[in-house]
């Protein structure tokens, strides 16, 4: 029993992670981004509803201990809290997708700070009547990746030595009902 959570009945969660390598399967190298349990609780989801505008028509659900980000229940999609904190709306801005394609990076690899900076620059350029291109972004800084594949933004002028406050961003996810009829009717 972990804390106040009951042990999971899902056999994939309860498997012994210390089993010796038998040469047939790959050894466990730690949890992948889409293979961790969610740390979102009903209280934190309520707080998230208050901080970030989520319409009342959108059905959200706190994942069970056995739910994983990569295997959401039928008719639900996975939403990371960090994406909402970075003001990433859905669908993502076309410029952000263009920049990520040019840099050969998927959106799920980009850390909170890099996402905040990039989306902030896109909004700043749009407010000023300009268009942020990958070339302009490369003049201001560059997207770099570490050994684990996470991507951050390194500025050419500012040396900001801060650590991402959400170290375990991959475990802070919740589920949203995939209701495309609502989105087509004008919901945001």
Nearest-integer average pLDDT: 64
The tally of helices reads: 7
**Percent in helix:** 25-40%
Give the N-to-C terminal Cα separation.
40 Å
Instruction: Specify the biggest β-sheet.
Output: 3 strands, antiparallel
The number of distinct structural domains comes to 1
| Class computed from helices, strands and strand pairing | alpha+beta
Q: Which residues sit in consecutive blocks of at least 5 with pLDDT less than 50?
A: 1-6, 12-22, 158-168
Query: Helix and strand string, N-terminal first?
Result: HHEEHHHHEEEH
For the largest sheet, list the strands in their spatial order.
Answer: 1-5-2
The backbone outline, from C-alpha atoms, is globular
Q: Summed up, what is this model?
A:
The chain has seven helices and five strands; from the N terminus they run ααββααααβββα.
Describe the structure.
This protein is an alpha+beta fold. It contains seven helices and five strands, in the order ααββααααβββα. A hairpin with a 5-residue loop joins strand 3 (141-145) and strand 4.
